[in-house]
Task: structure prediction
Amino acid sequence: MDLALLHRLTTGEGWGLLQSLPPYEPGSELSLQQRLRDAGFEADLVAAAVNQTRLRAKAEAKFGPFAQGMVFTSDGLEQATRLEVAAQHADRFRAAGIHTVYDLGCGIGADAMAMAGLDLRVRAIDADEVTAAIAAVNLRHWPDCTAIPGRAEEFTPPAGEGARGVGAWLDPARRTPGVADITGRTRRVFSLDAISPSWAHVQEVARALPATGAKLSPAFPHGALPRGAEAQWTSYDGEVLECAVWWGPLVHHPGRTAAVLSRGASPVVVTEGQAEDTPPVGSLADVGTWLYEPDRAVLRAGLVGAVAAATGGAELDAGVGYVSASRSEEVPFARRYAVLEAMPFNVKALRGWLRDHGVDRLTVKKRGVSLDADQLRRQLRLPPRGKTEAVVVITRVRSQQVVLVVQPS
Result:
């Protein structure tokens, strides 16, 4: 979609057409487009409007009912910050007394909208002029907020008194323009050297404007965190979405933190101060009656020690993430399992245990081992369409492969 088509779609006849379309139904696009063309609408406008209904339907998972008033591109939607996470970003700025945020690399405007919704004034830019124009459409309800084309590298931070109450938010591009993967989506990049603007430039902005935050990949390396800054890994319903780095007055807890967000629940934040450095389990015989699986944001942040501290337990082996304990505790940032059996990993022995206990349906979890879960299921030769389910965890204790049969609690 070019600027001219976007303008036609979001004004006058085009906007009326878009708002009048029925909810998206897969498989109905061709017949709907034909009816609209027969009614006198131009083909390119019809195609753009119908595509927006498809994207809006997909966007409801991220934006809820707000999606029906927004405009998207496929890449922009995929890269946009989820509404609940964007609200957490915006609240950081508001709590720090920030009144104006420069959103550098705003995409379709998800974070900018969340900030505007908290009465922050947003000055957003994006290097792609169509994307910037889409962000402007999505910000239309807040007249004091703007989105224009521009490069983050060309942004000049305000200085002196002009910087008081002003912050910056950067979302560096983590995709290679014009290069698609096998699914047709723009190919991702994972190196800090490959993002745009560069990690070095992000830090330059933070030095010039202390109230700065940046949205980065969950693969952000711990060693790259600047002194005094905070890196927060955020998950939503168990999926790690980002690592946001915060500077200056936006820092809540210097160092590594994890934010665990779940639908309908208050956010839970885990900090380095909650973590204990305890030695791993000594042997298979020392495995306790309970197993805890930390939330993935906690794992990414390297804060498994917080689960050990909360349960009085210990990690099964260095780096595997699973925590064994003899106590049953409600831990809001970990899932709890009752341990039914712990044994050295052996396919024949496991097959016999499952047969003896009438298990004919299996969920396989693994961490810290090289194992093909589908091949294991074939080797276990479980009856098809079973009704009695077990969960097995293949991992390590003292560098030896073990299997734990567990039950969610």
Residues 187 and 327 are 45 Å apart (CA to CA).
